[in-house]
Sequence to fold (266 residues):
Amino acid sequence: MTVSVDRFAQTPRLRALAAVALASALALTGCSSGNDQLAQRAQNDGTNYVAGDGSVQEIAPAERGEPVEFESTLFDGSAVSAASWEGEVTVINFWYAACAPCRVEAPDLADLHEEFSPEGVQFYGVNTRDTEPTAEAFERNFGIEYPSMEDRDGDVMLAMTDYVPPSAVPTTLVLDKQGRVSSRILGVAEPGTLSALISTALEEDLSADGSDAETNGSDAETNGSDAETNGSDAETNGSDTESSDADDAAASASSSSAALGSAESR
Fold:
């Protein structure tokens, strides 16, 4: 099934219907016609998950789109929006409890969250099908401590198609510190791969910070050079002033001598 959404021509009613259609399509159909084996397994094992092909996409900083913008609600009732991850590298994972590959990757996501939290990396889940009790049971079972958004209406899923379409569940996105999608994994997130993608996002921001520091350092050196130049100018001006004072004193002495000479002549 193919769902096409023109986000510029939707009325609120059509947008809502499109969100439901998109969520249903992703929940019931395979994302890749070339991955028949995974699609067949999804039908046979009763989970009906959308089979990802495990592909990884990285996006160069110059080619990334606008920052991700959406609002949602966590299962604990807290509101979440782009401001929630502003200035931090963020991992967003789309999942639901009956999804077999979601269960495979869950322990690794929990470990990566624990590993990268000290560096300020934030993790959020986007649950596309479950009620709160089901989602909480899954999180307890796999030791997941980061929060998840409730997205049975498909609003978050639809919003993300404006940037990088999460065309399979599970899908994992990494956002840079500007909130732009820097990489995407379709299907199970292999821990080594996801760790490398997170580290890359962290390192590119550190490099940018380093460049700023170097620029500031250069400015400081320039200012220092200017200060030295100003100091030299001040010394030169001081020397000129001393020279002028000496000349004035000599002229005054000469005038006094001439006056005394005239007085003696008389």
